[in-house]
Amino acid sequence: MKASEIRAKWLKFFESKGHTIEPSAPLVPHNDPSLLWINAGMAPLKPYFDGRVVPENPRIANSQKCIRTNDIENVGKTRRHHTFFEMLGNFSIGEYFKEEAITWAWEFLTSPDWIGFDPNRLSVTVYPEDTEAFELWTKKIGLPEERIYKLQENFWDIGEGPCGPCTEIFYDRGDKYGDLSDPECWPGGENERFLEVWNLVFSQFNHNKDGSYTPLPNKNIDTGAGLERFASILQDVDSNFDTDLFQPIIQKTAQLAGVTYKQNEEYDVALKVIADHIRTVAFSVGDGVLPSNEGRGYVIRRLLRRAVRYGKVLGMDKSFLYTLTPIVGEVMGVYYPEVVEKREFIEKIIRIEEERFHETLSDGLAILAEMVEKARNEGSTVISGPDAFKLYDTYGFPFDLTEDFAAEKGMTVDRAGFDQAMQEQRDRAREARKETDSMKVQGGPLADLTVKSEFVGYTDLVTAAKVI
Ligand code: ATP
Ligand code: MG
Ligand code: MG
Ligand code: MG
């Protein structure tokens, strides 16, 4: 089943259950300074959940484009994580609750009319105190107790505001993916034999200012399922990257680089990371985020640079990312016409940014050559920590890249000095953050201006560059 069919089935199924389909909102949150990116299907619907806006129909379903940069370290390593992905969701704003949510989830997953998973392969997790959910799974659905795992962390709570227990559905991918005697293979473990496909959140409490919890008068349902994960199961492939959502991009990149996918582990990671990042960058640019040195623009700049570096792993020394834009459009245009309509613009922005980065790289190399020269003149064979940090901070050179280039000149780099310079910068950033947080306490319009970057890719950039 093609991914576009799965998406269409989702929407059709929930439409048949009386839901109104909301189109995907842009990746940039509207009127929500607490979020850098839309990171879940529920995020653009917050005004309904907190009562600011009353929806015409309390039943809503969507397929929402999402960005989660906190998963960046996982991309290319796990079978299931992306920085950009689609979350399929169904929502009840103070109307239906656990029984309908669970019953419909089961129907959609197991009925041959919909996606028809083998029911014997499904397991769920519940919050230990949520006996209601446990009983629905056992009595209403007939799921054997041994396939229900009670997990303390199944409680969705982000501080003050609505919160509640959740139940998550896992698909057992079989022996090929892990041995059941290993607890890491069980739902919630590190192994991906049991693939988490769907999270059903029951927001039934209010987390009060004083830390207490009181029942909400209007209970809500908020669910999210990963389209790419459904596709990997339904297409019977190893990972999300082997589905029709990613393969055209991966194959095109492999062709450009003259390599073959699935022949070399290191190349495969690079191909996956590039395919992931180009989707994130193309969609963000399409939604009006331009590469820059702060906030969202900075996230996009770092992702693009990261993709360029992984390109180097494949031996790509010239700009190529922008040529993948049309493929992203071909794959995603059915549901997200913006990537097709804005293709030329997206392509141009990516191309300019990519070319500029190649220049930055060569500028950095020139500076490095001067540093080597300076060290030599001083009778040293070591590039100093502060110098290596300047290359990192100003030219985007990760430590290992500097180290590799230095090694070519018979030099080493002062790691401890680099780490210290990095630490000093972190301390400075922390001080700066404290100031912003104190601004928040003061409230007022200034507080709304502070959008914290959640980009966490630095350490991985260093790892990524090791092989460059
Ligand atoms: P995981 O444990 O696999 O990281 P999660 O528990 O963080 O997932 P949720 O916040 O529950 O994910 O999101 C709901 C659903 O969205 C998940 O069940 C999964 O199908 C999908 N999903 C979440 N994060 C990602 C991601 N980074 N890439 C692809 N799909 C994702
Ligand atoms: Mg996660
Ligand atoms: Mg999870
Ligand atoms: Mg989850």
Automatic annotation (TrEMBL):
<dbReference type="GO" id="GO:0004813">
    <property type="term" value="F:alanine-tRNA ligase activity"/>
</dbReference>
<dbReference type="GO" id="GO:0016740">
    <property type="term" value="F:transferase activity"/>
</dbReference>
<keyword id="KW-0547">Nucleotide-binding</keyword>
<dbReference type="GO" id="GO:0005829">
    <property type="term" value="C:cytosol"/>
</dbReference>
<dbReference type="GO" id="GO:0002161">
    <property type="term" value="F:aminoacyl-tRNA deacylase activity"/>
</dbReference>
<dbReference type="GO" id="GO:0006419">
    <property type="term" value="P:alanyl-tRNA aminoacylation"/>
</dbReference>
<comment type="similarity">
    <text>Belongs to the class-II aminoacyl-tRNA synthetase family.</text>
</comment>
<dbReference type="GO" id="GO:0140096">
    <property type="term" value="F:catalytic activity, acting on a protein"/>
</dbReference>
<keyword id="KW-0067">ATP-binding</keyword>
<protein>
    <recommendedName>
        <fullName>Alanine--tRNA ligase</fullName>
        <ecNumber>6.1.1.7</ecNumber>
    </recommendedName>
</protein>
<keyword id="KW-0648">Protein biosynthesis</keyword>
<keyword id="KW-0963">Cytoplasm</keyword>
<keyword id="KW-0694">RNA-binding</keyword>
<feature type="coiled-coil region">
    <location>
        <begin position="415"/>
        <end position="442"/>
    </location>
</feature>
<keyword id="KW-0175">Coiled coil</keyword>
<keyword id="KW-0479">Metal-binding</keyword>
<keyword id="KW-0030">Aminoacyl-tRNA synthetase</keyword>
<comment type="function">
    <text>Catalyzes the attachment of alanine to tRNA(Ala) in a two-step reaction: alanine is first activated by ATP to form Ala-AMP and then transferred to the acceptor end of tRNA(Ala). Also edits incorrectly charged Ser-tRNA(Ala) and Gly-tRNA(Ala) via its editing domain.</text>
</comment>
<keyword id="KW-0820">tRNA-binding</keyword>
<keyword id="KW-0436">Ligase</keyword>
<dbReference type="GO" id="GO:0008270">
    <property type="term" value="F:zinc ion binding"/>
</dbReference>
<dbReference type="GO" id="GO:0000049">
    <property type="term" value="F:tRNA binding"/>
</dbReference>
<keyword id="KW-0862">Zinc</keyword>
<dbReference type="GO" id="GO:0005524">
    <property type="term" value="F:ATP binding"/>
</dbReference>
